[in-house]
Amino acid sequence: MGRIQTPVGHSSTIRKEVRTLRDDGRGKILFAVSAGSFLIVGVQMIYPVMLPELRVAYGLNLGTAGLLLTLLWAANAIGQIPSGILADEIGEKRTLLLSVVLSAVTIVLIVSFESSAALFASTVLLGAGLALFGVARYTIMYETYPDRAGTTIGIVLAAADAGQSLLPPLASVLTVVVAWQLGFGFTIPIFILIAVTIWLYIPREVSSEKQSSEHMSLSRFAETLSMMYTKRVIFATTIFVIYVCVWVSFTSFYPTYLIESKNIPQTTTAILFGSFFAAGVVIKPLSGAIYDRVGIRRTLMVLAPISALALIAFPLAEGVLPIAVITLLVAPLLGSGTIAQSYLIEIFTHDVRGTGLGIIRTCGLLIGSTTPAIFGFFAEIGYFDEGFLALALLIGTMITLIMLLPSK
Fold first, then answer.
1. Could you read off the pLDDT of 59-101 as tens digits, one per residue?
2. Which residues have C-beta within 8 Å of that of residue 44, sequence separation ≥ 6?
3. Radius of gyration, alpha carbons of the chain
4. By three-state DSSP, how is residue 202 classified?
5. What's the rounded Cα separation, in Å, for the pair 295 and 292?
6. The architecture CATH gives domain 22-208+218-404
7. Handedness of CA 99, 100, 106, 111 (dihedral sign)
8. Which tens digit of pLDDT belongs to each residue from 218-251?
9. pTM for the whole thing?
């Protein structure tokens, strides 16, 4: 008979895993990067919740509002390559600090100016600032925890989901009670606190410049690109791109859809929106840990079909409770990004790991950034429900690719 693991055994395993993550001061690094991820991604997701208020304040229709989100995501996408290059060249610590400081300055600009042109320009700058955090948080986790990349990246991304679940509802409440400017402005002191945390908790020797005989050159950049022409990279990149398209479209218009199509109050919508990311707090580290043990294919083949079926059911749901249940069933999609990026980051060599992942994230986020404008256009002409069915079809394509992908 097989040995039965008791609850005490499970508890002992968890305590051992936690001790391993905290050994040699690494726990402080994990905390600092997770805290930054909490804020950076949470701030970006304030935009969809604020979209109804911004539409009123600036007279934006659904198509123009979608364009604003597209610009935010496009700037974030383009900034991934500089993030990767900077992580490889000047180190993760400096790159993370630069991201936090630049984002804080941009938030000040957003709440200070009142013209729509200033809003669009500041949004682009914010997307670029947030982007610098993107790749560096992955590479520093792989450098710090080479044997637990999936687990620790899952923790960092779970912290991002915690930010997405808490910051948008808080921004919504502050907007209703005070003004929309405070819905962004309350994050400024948090940015300052995170900058101090990164400065104190991440040692230079962990995130220093990569020990390479040459800095980034065109030839080395071309060598990085040549590493991508393998079945593993092409398939995993395509899975990541599909994940981004679905995730960006769903999260960009989820609040607006519930308010305008399902007649759900804004505060309730913000709570439901937060619950989607709250589920990710559990799903991402769990999916990362499972990936570390069984590989990419078996993990994704469990997560993806659940999200596809939930998206098909989403337009049919009526009432807060059914929508809440379906929202939680869409949430397994969040584990797909954790797994695909953990899989990809292991493929590249030490000196170009940040650059390689940066190129892939730029491609994925840039393609994904076009989807809010497309989704918003079809919503404007009366095809809001059909948009969610199209997202389910995209996940069906992802499932086909997963079946063909070599496992870890």
1. 877 778 878 888 887 888 888 888 888 887 888 889 999 999 9
2. 72, 76, 126, 127, 130
3. 20
4. coil
5. 6
6. Up-down Bundle (1.20)
7. positive
8. 566 666 666 667 777 888 888 889 988 998 888 8
9. 0.72
* Residues making up the chain, counted from first to last: 408
The structure tokens listed for 394 are 């995209």
Cα-Cα-Cα-Cα dihedral of 8, 13, 16, 20, to 10°?
A: -160
pLDDT digits (tens, 9 = 90+) for 276-315: 878 878 888 888 778 777 777 888 888 889 999 999 998 8
Q: CA 170, CA 186: separation in Å to the nearest integer?
A: 9
Identify which of 390, 292, 341, 304 has the alpha carbon closest to the alpha carbon of residue 160: 341
